[in-house]
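input
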Amino acid sequence: MTLIADPQSRPTGAPYDPTYDPLTHATPGTDRNYAPTYWVATAGPPPEDDGPVTGDMDTDVVIVGSGFTGLSCALSLARDHGIKAMVLEANRVAWGCSTRNGGQGQTASGRLSRSQWIARYGRETALKLHAEIMEGFDYFTDLVREFDPDPQPGGHIYVAHRPRTYEKLAAESALANEVFGYRTRMIGADALKRDWLDEAGAVGALHEPLGIGIHPAKFAFGYLRAARAAGAKVYPSSPVLEIERDGAAFRVRTPHGTVRARAVAIATGGYTSQDLHPRLRSRIMPILSNSLVTRPLTPEEIAASFRTTTFVTDTRTLRFYYRRLPDDRVQIGSRSAITGADATHPRHLQLLIDGLHAKFPVLEGIRVDYSWWGWVDVSHDMMPRVVQPEPDEPLFYSLGYGGNGVSFSAQAGRRLAGLVAGRKPVGLPIYEGALPGHPFAPFRRIGQRMLYRWYHHRDEAA
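output
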């Protein structure tokens, strides 16, 4: 097994910290190298940025976080509202979720299914939420055309790993077609094997027509170029140490300068520390996800495993997500350690390797060229929020995607920009009210360990 290091590391940068944990670290560091992802290794040199903050400054809007959401917000503020924001980033541009995810852009927001939307919000609101997410996917598609991040269209395959989960998928497919007018279809086991992929144990799948696999780092770098060309400023190596109210404005303190701004928008995803701002304390439960990328497959291996480049997830609660990349490598990801301190233990990588081998026995022993992990921002009610939590305070945030932010972050950033610019919020639950808090969020990991064991037992039961 070969693990390739980050070729984009600057000699002056701080070492990558594989044990960073947002529940125990006050900041994610300063100017740390990227995680050793396949995406960073193959994206080419990062575009030019504006360098770190080196003195006191004034601006209309500060955006905290330079991932998909923060850069989408900066781009929309400039293009749609004529507001040239400043983006502050602790480490490198798009250092967190946006260069560590699986690149699966699909029609989702948060972790709830469409049937769960109806159960929670009612049919009318669920239909409006669906329309909003479809609009957002159209916007994401436009950005994919603009940035050209090695797109792989073809929708999304949701593989049932047990007969009981196939039945649940069939019910979801019928609901999508009949209630939402979203033309999904079921694929039987034989057709799945013949036309798509030969996955051991798969009993069929749901295919949804909308979905684009992307190269996340190339997409993030496209955002960076576009946002700066539109007038935004992006300052890496500038961690936010404090956000404090200063009359009608804010003072945003970094190690080498304080920025005074009339509004602050927070887009820090799974890397939101407990100390960033009181309104965000214990609002997110960060969950680690591991990922690996193999060597390129041979033609014979492709024929015996991944005939498609459409991206895939399975029906486990502790789900796997996987696809064949444009250079014929396999990327697969799933759950990882509970804490950052345990993230480097080899058993977490071995779980992924074992999962890959179990799904595709022909790939047993295949070389692993890249391995990394990153934090996912899971909200306590499994749905995101893009909100101004207090109407008299010009502070805004967009968080809680639960692993489904690749495409939705484009729309979320655009909606966040609208809020900052003074537009009335869209009348949907994800754009109303603060993220729910949890008084014992740092201690939920005790229960998380037990839940992971239960989920694994339930997922693998016959």
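quick obs: The chain has one domain: 1-155+210-462.
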